[in-house]
Write a structure and sequence with these properties.
The chain is an alpha+beta fold. It is built from 3 helices and 8 strands, in the order E-H-E-H-E-E-E-E-E-E-H. It has one domain: START domain (Alpha-D-Glucose-1,6-Bisphosphate, Chain A, domain 4, 2-Layer Sandwich). This is Abscisic acid receptor PYL10. Belongs to the PYR/PYL/RCAR abscisic acid intracellular receptor family. Keywords: Abscisic acid signaling pathway, Cytoplasm, Nucleus, Protein phosphatase inhibitor, Receptor.
Length: 190
């Protein structure tokens, strides 16, 4: 069961814990002609094993058809992603900026490709939580990107937020299906 609780920073309130994580871990240097936002998704399953796989985004990103990683999976690695038709892009070249398996943080930057997302970077943090007595996850994704010529900040943020919401819903669907198949046991309350 997927929860539909995306929250964007633009005008919506975060819980105190979400706000704390965003202030601590989601820092972007936003310039004048850029937009930035943060989105939150509660998932009824663990997700880090999927999120951390910078080399295999197609496992949960529905708009990725193929990914080729140049070299080993490490900070500085570059992946070339083919985008499925229907989006205003065909390829994206992305660099892994930060990966922390202890704190569950992944940051990436788009460094090329056939699309309009210039100077795009994102941070994804994954925080364990209990949902309905079972292991769950608070996922927070934030981004900053240039506003393309001919678009407004609101239009740009709306477009990127829609892509992230689609990705987070798919992450939830895939993770929750995997959790059901593994028969994840409820967490005992103390």
């Amino acid at each position: 069961m997927v929860t539909n609780d995306y929250i964007a920073m633009n005008g919506n309130a975060f819980s105190k814990i979400e706000e704390k994580f965003i202030q601590k871990l989601h820092k972007h240097d936003v310039k004048e002609n850029q937009c930035s936002s943060s989105l939150v998704k509660h998932v009824k399953a663990p997700v880090w094993s999927l999120v951390r796989r910078f080399d295999q985004p197609q496992k949960y990103k529905p708009f990725v058809s193929k990914c080729v990683l140049q070299g080993d999976l490490q900070i500085g690695s570059v992946r070339e992603v083919n985008v499925k038709s229907g989006l205003p892009a065909t390829t994206s070249k992305e660099r892994l900026e930060y990966l922390d398996d202890d704190e569950h943080i992944l940051s990436m930057k788009i460094v090329g490709g056939d699309h309009r997302l210039k100077n795009y970077s994102s941070i994804v943090t994954v925080h364990p939580e209990v949902i309905d007595g079972r292991p769950g996850t608070l996922v927070i994704e934030s981004f900053v990107v240039d506003v393309p010529e001919g678009n407004t900040k609101d239009e740009t943020c709306y477009f990127v937020e829609a892509l992230i919401k689609c990705k987070l819903k798919s992450l939830a669907d895939v993770s929750e299906l995997l959790a059901v198949q593994d028969q994840t046991e409820p967490i005992e309350r103390m």
